[in-house]
Amino acid sequence: MFPCLGMLARQVLSVPVSTVAVEREFSAGGNILTDYRSCLNAESLETLVCNQDWLLARRRAQESSYQLESEHYMNATTDASPSSEE
């Protein structure tokens, strides 16, 4: 009904993709810096954030490896099964 108004609203009210990562980091920071840990100095807080990032990256790498192994196994069992077209 109002195409120009719709286009304008999409351009003005849309959230840029670049701000999503920043918001995610603030959210992660809130999960680390709680009231219980509020007396941590900057170096300790940085160490916690880095350790968490390394652990998550390691977990993602392991999950990716397990997925590749299972796909390889599934392909091998599919290729080894007898053909029903004989």
TrEMBL record:
Which GO molecular function entries does the Swiss-Prot or TrEMBL record give?
protein dimerization activity
List the InterPro entries: HATC_C_dom (IPR008906), RNaseH-like_sf (IPR012337)
Which residues belong to any copy of the HAT C-terminal dimerisation domain? 2-55
Q: Which SUPFAM superfamilies match?
A: Ribonuclease H-like (SSF53098)
Q: What is this protein called?
A: HAT C-terminal dimerisation domain-containing protein
Organism annotation? Cuscuta campestris
